[in-house]
Design brief:
single chain; 355 residues; alpha/beta; nine-stranded mixed beta sheet; five-stranded parallel beta sheet; 24% strand
Amino acid sequence: MKQEKPMRIAVIGYGGMGGWHCNLIQRIEELELAGIYDILEERREAARQNGIFAYESLEELLSDKSVQLVTVAIPNQLHKPICIQAMQAGKNVVCEKPVALNHEELQEMIDASKENGVVFTVHQNRRWDEDFRAIKKVYDENMLGRVFRIESRVHGSRGIPGDWRNKKECGGGMILDWGVHLFDQIMQMIPRKLISIYAELSYVTNEACEDGFTVTMKFEGDLTVVVEVGTSNFISLPRWYMLGENGSAMISDWSDRGKIVMVSDWQKRDAVPVVTAAGLTKTMAPRTEETIKTYPMPEVKSDIRDFYRNVVNTINGESELLVKHEEVMRVMKFMEAVFESGEENTVIKNMEERI
């Protein structure tokens, strides 16, 4: 049964993501923004200037019985205590990613949700990215035939932001910042058994925590997945690159629709040799135009508001969470293995036992 009135929600933290959540919430009919709380008075005042009520204390927000749902968008190391405090006050909670600094903290948060009978989930919003949904459709529908390699990359050239995100004790670094998204996407896409991983971490612009990484994942069925984040890349590699036995798919960046190149004639294998500066090659000569066809990537529309709609429906007992505890735990334990592999320069095997 559909609720008659919008569910009232409050946001803890009014920085960049807190403001983003407020803007999104105000575009969702099922929700009513009750207000925000931020530890900084200037941010509370900024909210007021934007027409948003600002609670004067966290206790005032949590004691507001009209608020059923709270979104926590504060620095990573504060997620666990604030989320648990909110759940103990009887509030359902959405936590920004990464949900915690390790899987033990996450388990405490899950336990708190069960003990207090409230809904608790994590804002894994990149599941709604349309580039991800398009490449997942290519994989799900076997458009390239047997896929043997997938590469997922996010490259930038501005280093780590100069705030808490570059401090290890605050949960900084690119694994918890961007890795949590990219690993979650791969695990949503590929239901196969994960065999092993190997991670390389970079510290080009920051010594306290990693400013980039490359993780190689080996799945059963001879599938290799490379996940990479870099913050010192002035020429970016493709956002997605997928190789199958019948063709390849690529999406350059978030603004690019992408393309698929497929074999159209397996019989015509001959090629005109390519002359290089120091010789020629026939093996690496490109296929002729009549033996391949180029297609646009499938277009898959999404609406990030569906995340919150699902949370509301779950609270009302009409649905199950899309971002489940066991999925979040799997990603958290995976990231711990990534840190271990990168710091010890070793391949981590028997991954299914680890995660």
